[in-house]
Write a structure and sequence with these properties.
single chain, alpha+beta, Alpha-Beta Plaits, 2 domains, 5-stranded antiparallel sheet, 5-stranded mixed sheet, elongated, Diguanylate_Cyclase, Rev_trsase/Diguanyl_cyclase, PAS-like_dom_sf, diguanylate cyclase activity
Length: 320
């Protein structure tokens, strides 16, 4: 009698633990009918155990991907081995709302789900236990960390004033472009340009106005390139534009179009200080098999830029 009483007490404790443990417990039979539905599942689904039991899981939750889950459940029974589904594979199995204040940014609960075979007394496996873990905190923290890392990575590649690519980003893409050219031999042009007499703007109006001019010119250049092109602030008032699959004639046409647009633009100065116009000079060269390095290619565009400035500025010079 004492032994039976102790067994009953242990069974009561076990049942109480299963009901109140902070994970979801669902037991399904071979027909996917619910045999156990603990309080975690009741609380988060709004479906009581008395309503859920003896019903197909897919009737209770019709939005669950039935073919996908059936394959998982059948494999657990046939192979007698557990299967684990991470939130990174599938954010959730059950569409529960997130309830923790720290994870209020998440609409739905992220879940890890373990599917485990349950052996009968005769050794057969006819039931599967689904263990549902709430991992919303982990998922949100990882997503936030990943987002922060992406932003830091982006910031490391961007010039803060102009929001164009910075010199470090330019060096990397030029190296990759040069190496690719050795194999493909596809045309590629490089434009170096700078704002004419920019020092006079800083001296006359001050550096805040100079910064405003740089930002406006940067936006004008960026708005006139293709998505495949690469625009970088090279330093000071100087910019570099990489034009893949464009020969020197096409690059010359591009430079002339941008030159005219910038010369025709009135830049509104901050604090109602009026407006100012600027011009730009351009030097362009096409990557050649005779270029032994990125530096040689850059130097040819740079030499063309200085020739344009020596010729009177507000123009482009192209070298082949």
């Amino acid at each position: 009698m004492i032994s039976n009483a102790e067994d009953m007490m242990e069974l009561h404790w076990l049942f109480d633990m299963l009901q109140h443990i902070d994970v979801g417990l669902v037991v399904l039979d071979e027909n996917y009918e619910i045999k156990l539905w603990n309080s975690f599942m009741e609380n988060h689904s709004g479906v009581s155990s008395s309503i859920a039991k003896e019903r197909s899981l897919f009737d209770v939750f019709p939005t669950i991907n039935k073919p996908w889950l059936e394959r998982k459940l059948d494999n657990v029974i046939a192979l007698r081995t557990p299967i684990f589904v991470s939130w990174e594979q599938r954010p959730h199995l059950f569409p529960f709302k997130s309830y923790r204040p720290i994870t209020s940014m998440a609409d739905n609960m992220y879940q890890n789900v373990a599917l485990r075979p349950i052996s009968h007394v005769d050794g057969t496996v006819k039931h599967v236990c689904l263990v549902v873990y709430d991992v919303t905190d982990v998922a949100i923290n990882k997503a936030s960390l990943s987002s922060a890392n992406d932003k830091l990575d982006q910031l490391s590649k961007i010039d803060p004033l102009t929001q164009l690519h910075n010199r470090g980003s330019l060096d990397k893409i030029l190296k990759n472009t040069f190496n690719t050219f050795q194999v493909s031999q596809k045309p590629c042009s490089l434009v170096m340009c700078d704002i004419d007499f920019f020092k006079k703007i800083n001296d006359q109006y001050g550096h805040p106005v100079g910064d405003s001019v740089l930002r406006k010119v940067s936006r004008l250049i960026a708005s006139n390139v293709r998505s495949s092109d690469f625009v970088s602030r090279y330093g000071g008032e100087e910019f570099v534009i990489l034009l893949p699959n464009i020969d020197v004639d096409g690059a010359s046409f591009f430079c002339e179009a941008v030159r005219k647009k910038i010369a025709a633009t009135k830049i509104i100065l901050p604090n109602q200080a009026g407006e100012v116009s600027v011009t730009m000079s351009f030097g362009v060269s096409q990557l050649s098999p005779s270029d032994k390095s990125v530096s040689e290619w850059l130097n040819r565009s740079d030499a063309a830029l200085y020739q344009a400035k020596d010729n009177g500025r507000n123009q482009y010079v192209a070298v082949r």
